[in-house]
Specification:
Elements (H helix, E strand, L loop, with lengths): L5 H9 L1 E6 L3 H5 L2 H9 L4 E2 L2 H8 L6 H9 L4 H26 L7 E4 L8 H15 L4 E6 L4 H10 L4 E6 L2 H20 L9 E6 L1 H15 L5 H9 L4 H16 L3 H7 L7 E5 L12 H4 L6 E5 L1 H10 L10 H9 L10 H36 L1
Helix pairs in contact: 4-17, 5-6, 5-17, 7-8, 8-9, 9-12, 12-16
Length: 382
């Protein structure tokens, strides 16, 4: 492993794990995934319906398995699941040494329950149970959306010993609810006399989408503004809300996982639920391509990066523990959205982003199922 690699430095010196936000059969079979663990210090991997759509649609590497599914009389849904489960299981095997070396801190592979059930608690619980049992790897994490309907499912899954990645968290309030749901799930498990030391969870807190949404609103408000003071206030907030929001969330993390209630679980061997920074590719070319990495390095966190951001970070990240720098400024930045000259309702933004986020997973999922059905029909006709 390259000693000067900033990604390795982030993990070794600052206690933050870097995971990759991308998974395909190509990188598994070519050996690229193994190589990334060695050369880039990648300690885990996440997937989602959009990632699988890119991986499977139009890729011949899956054809033999699709044909085998057709011969076995499987439905399109069953074929889809067999493709995805194979990739997830193989990725779990590749990351198992990382899982063992870190005593279960890292080495996780995340798979999302179908996004079409994001608002159905009972279905989310049953799918999480089935995925975890079928995949049968200690280092698999089931992704459950942090919707009002998803959180009770998450709590239940934790109480049953299922590792969970809670995804699509935007607001600090929804993160706080997630952290307490994790604690309640562990408490139920402990009360039942079950081991709580082997369970892992991350809370995936989204970043760049917040700035994209708020920057668009700021740009709209800047149109036609001639008062210099108002113009300065609006301009100064661009590209700053997501990181400020994350820094506030980290303060809540410290508060919750410093509580007496948590300490009772920690005494039984429970692991903290780490905050995971998601949606970390910079959308605005005017901003640094590693701003969502550099600004949020800190202990007991995870940052999940798409391949381009991994390469950018390996090249020019500037590691330092910054998660607790400028905290007061972060609170002030969030508060300034209420200034009459700015007047942006952050709750409204977060609600909008959650709905959009679910949609951004449902659409590629449906598109993938449709293209898979087409491919099944083509291959069945041969």
């Amino acid at each position: 492993m390259v000693a000067s690699n900033p990604i390795v430095q982030i993990e070794k010196e600052y206690g933050q794990s870097i995971w990759m936000d991308n998974l395909s059969r190509d990188i598994i079979e070519s050996g690229e995934l193994k190589e990334l663990i060695v050369s880039r210090g990648i300690h885990g991997i996440t997937s989602n319906p959009a990632i699988f759509e890119k991986a499977i649609a139009g890729n011949k590497i899956y054809d033999a398995d699709i044909e085998a599914g057709i011969r076995a009389g499987k439905s399109v849904d069953e074929i889809y699941e067999s493709l995805v489960f194979t990739d997830i299981g193989n990725a779990c095997d590749i990351f198992m040494p990382v899982y063992e070396e870190t005593n279960g801190l890292d080495g996780y592979v995340s798979i999302e329950v179908p996004p079409t059930i994001a608002k159905d608690t009972a279905s989310t619980i049953s799918e999480a149970q089935r995925y975890f049992k079928t995949l049968d790897h200690p280092n698999v994490m089931i992704k459950i959306p942090g919707t009002p309907e998803g959180l009770p499912a998450f709590e239940q899954a934790i109480s049953e010993g299922i590792n969970v990645n809670v995804t699509l968290l935007f607001s600090v309030e929804s993160y706080v609810e997630t952290a307490w749901a994790y604690i309640r799930g562990l408490e139920k498990r402990a009360e039942a006399g079950e081991d709580v030391s082997k369970i892992a969870s991350v809370a995936s807190f989204f970043l760049s989408r917040i700035d994209s949404n708020i920057d668009n609103r700021l740009d709209a408000k800047l149109e036609g503004v001639d008062r210099l003071e108002k113009k300065a206030k609006l301009t100064d907030l661009k590209g700053k809300i997501a990181i400020a929001n994350a820094k506030v969330a980290y303060q809540k993390y410290k508060e919750i996982f410093g509580s007496e209630r948590w300490k009772a679980l920690a005494a039984k061997g429970a692991k903290v639920q780490r905050l995971l920074w998601a949606s970390t590719s910079t959308k605005n070319p005017e901003y640094s391509d590693v701003m969502y990495v550099d600004e949020l390095v800190g202990p007991d966190t995870v940052n999940t990066l798409p391949p381009n951001t991994i390469e950018a970070c390996a090249d020019h990240c500037d590691p330092a523990s910054r998660i607790e720098t400028g905290v007061e400024e972060a609170y002030n930045t969030i508060a300034s959205l209420k200034d009459p000259d700015v007047n942006i309702d952050l709750d409204e933004v977060m609600d909008e982003l959650l709905e959009e986020g679910i949609d951004k997973f449902i659409k590629p999922f449906e598109s993938l199922m449709s293209s898979l059905e087409t491919k099944v029909n083509q291959l069945a006709a041969v």
